[in-house]
Amino acid sequence: MGVMTDRLSLFKDKRVLITGHTGFKGSWLSRIFAMAGAELAGYALPAEELSMYRLCKQDSILKSYEGDVRDFSHLRSIVNDFSPEYIFHLAAQPLVLEGYSYPRETYETNFMGTVNLLECIRRGRGFRSVVLITTDKVYREQKNACREDDALDGFDPYSNSKSCAELAAACYRRSFAMSAPISTARAGNTLGGGDFAANRILPDCMRALLKGETVQVRHPYSVRPYLYVLDTLCAYISIAVRQAEQIELAGAYNVAPGAEIIQTGVLVEKVCREWGEGRSSVSSMPDAWHETERLQLNNEKIRNSLHWRPHYSIDDAVRETVAWTKAWQCGEDMALFTDRQIRAYLESAAK
Ligand SMILES: NC(=O)c1ccc[n+]([C@@H]2O[C@H](COP(=O)([O-])OP(=O)(O)OC[C@H]3O[C@@H](n4cnc5c(N)ncnc54)[C@H](O)[C@@H]3O)[C@@H](O)[C@H]2O)c1
């Protein structure tokens, strides 16, 4: 058995709450915990019509609570009722461009939503471990290899709302005797099947390729710490497990690939090649909003203290994403297909 399989076995019969379970990452995380035999609940807005949540019929693997993280008393009543041992907080307005259009709502959800959850934990009992999901964009200076203690002050409303969530988590940790270790996880752009978000690079590629259109890239020369969805989620799980064993491990963690970096335009070329059918046309398009050209995270802390490392390369991530999308197009059972991808990943991680 590999380290990850061992870590997952600890969740058998444990109560796990995932906020944002109707989203892309929340759907994958729910399937992983369902496979591990956890007792699972989710708290989020209703799933989008076209979503991995609906395609995989996720209602059958968890107790799903519809709710808004901005509604403190509702969130608190659900947390108290379900009484989770582990909490993964993914619920968020997760898009940079939406943040420019709806800054107030973005702060309310991402910042105050996180404060509301922290308050539930401060006032509650029985928690073993809490992981709050932020982003690689929380840093003030978006430079080569940001480290966890670099200054926080994300540029745009989305990024900045997540910097605020980070500050709130750090403040709660030092101000109150919290009943559970709380960490934040700063991951970058996540690649994998089942993401239908607007203005994200792989979903944009999938939509264009399905229609036989040219893939338009807003920033072909931008460099991002792209990571496969299961590598990212296994980092969150590793944080949850290790800080529950050793409380002093609670803190902030960059979740990022090592040396493997890639320009967005090159990533898109890879996707087109993997898709086949002669589609390889990429063009750049103008964009009004600021986006950082080069964003990289230093991942030494999570590698050294939690022994986490990515197991899939960018080529693997592209292959799995294209396969997922084609399986969906062919009308396969997407819950079974997704579980097969998870098992294959865990087997490869165990080698
Ligand atoms: N996908 C990425 O590339 C990426 C990169 C860095 C960080 N993140 C972070 O990871 C987390 C999950 O992202 P995702 O890609 O799965 O996003 P997603 O949009 O697919 O899912 C977002 C989830 O949050 C829920 N949500 C939104 N507003 C809410 C509210 N007010 N109350 C309750 N629930 C609400 C949605 O219902 C959904 O379940 C987010 O915190 C996001 O900021 C994602």
Tell me about this structure.
With 351 residues, this protein is an alpha/beta fold. It has one domain: Rossmann fold (3-Layer(aba) Sandwich), CATH 3.40.50.720. 46% of the residues lie in helices and 14% in strands. It is built from 13 helices and 13 strands. The strands form four sheets. Strands 3-2-1-4-5-6-11 form a seven-stranded parallel beta sheet, sandwiched between helices. Strands 7-10 form a two-stranded parallel sheet. Helix 12 packs antiparallel against helix 13 (334-350). The longest helix has 21 residues, at 103-123. The model has no long low-confidence stretch (mean pLDDT 93). The protein binds nicotinamide-adenine-dinucleotide. Residues 20-26, 44-45, 68-70, 90-94, 109, 113, 133, 135, 187, 189-190, 197 line the site of nicotinamide-adenine-dinucleotide (NAD).
